[in-house]
Every structure is written in C-alpha cells, then in structure tokens.
Task: inverse folding
C-alpha cells in the first residue's frame, strides 16, 4: 500500500509541475505573439505611407 501512495504522490507532483511549466510557457508565448503582432502592424503602416 505504501508503494501505491508514493506512486500517487510522485504522479501528482509531476503532473502539477508540467501544468505549471505549460502555463508559464503559454504566458511567455502570448507575450511574444503580442510583440510580433505589434511589430507587424508597425511594418504595415510604414508600407502604406
């Protein structure tokens, strides 16, 4: 029984770590996408002039 408890604890820890990494990566990715989108808009306005 103790082994099963340890396995559950380890799995929960790994899953929570992966979720935390995914959320931080997606937040960083969103920031990069916003920057890229803003730069693209700037380029478009320069071309139109």
Result:
């Amino acid at each position: 029984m103790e082994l099963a408890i340890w396995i559950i604890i380890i799995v929960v820890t790994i899953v929570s770590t992966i979720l935390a990494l995914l959320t931080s990566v997606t937040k960083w990715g969103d920031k990069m996408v916003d920057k890229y989108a803003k730069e693209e808009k700037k380029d478009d306005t320069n071309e139109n002039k």
